Give the backbone structure.
Amino acid sequence: MAVRSKILRAQLSFLKPIVERCSVETARRAQEQIGRIMFVPKKGRVTVEKKTFPAFSGEWILPEKEKKGKRGDPLVILYLHGGGYVAGGLDYARGFGSALAARYRLRVFTAAYRLGPEHRHPAALEDAKEAFFYLLAEGYSPRRILLCGESAGGGLCFSLAVALRDKGVSPAGIIAISPWTDLTQSGGSCRENAERDPSLSKERLDAFAKLYTDTPLDPLVSPLFADLTGLPPSLIFAGGDEVLLDDARRMEERLLAAGSLCTLSVAPGMWHVYPLYGVKEAKRDFERIERFLTGIEG
């Protein structure tokens, strides 16, 4: 493990008990601040345009030099942020959304979907669907819209893909980083990695799940339990030490069993959503994303 990663891991471990006890409002403020910090290095490489919907807000993040599609119709990324379905807004989403836009020179649209406990399921999914259909109305073909998200946002990408599939629509693909696909926390890694994960715990996930839904077994809440037939190609990342490792592993197994293409990359010794921290160990992951995007572009 690189020196910077070791330092980050130690810092996360130190903060973990403090974060575990903080209120939802404190978690929201902290997460927005993280996004602001992440955005600073990308400020001169992207421009931002806000889009307001009746129930939520979205934002276009436009790269300075946009990549042209091979067929003249470039991909657009619909980015759904994480935060346990209770935290995360435009400031937070702008952090990683700008990293995607700048690195891959693609337009990114972020949706600051409604959050629990004020707005419980299916509010987040309904907002994600509205964002997707907004992109269709803007002239993007479904097969040129790629879903990307981390943690709860990664799970929401799969829930959205299932809901769209049921309407006869399929996006280009899914990139999910440490996706939360099982809100019952039934995966063995919730126990096995409890001491190794420096940033997340089953107890915190249980609390978030209760704030978001009364039906964690609903396939559109926990897409691990959905019929995954006909979903687009997926690329999943997970840290080897995170409690949600089995959410990623089992999702890959179920996608492959359903006949959908899926590749899972597990980084030994890494924690929840580690690529967002810009660690050296994530370099290959961003290269994998680039190859995935190239394959989808055709």
Observations:
- The first helix runs from residue 3 to 21.
- The CA atoms of residues 85 and 296 lie 29 Å apart.
- The two ends are 35 Å apart (CA to CA).
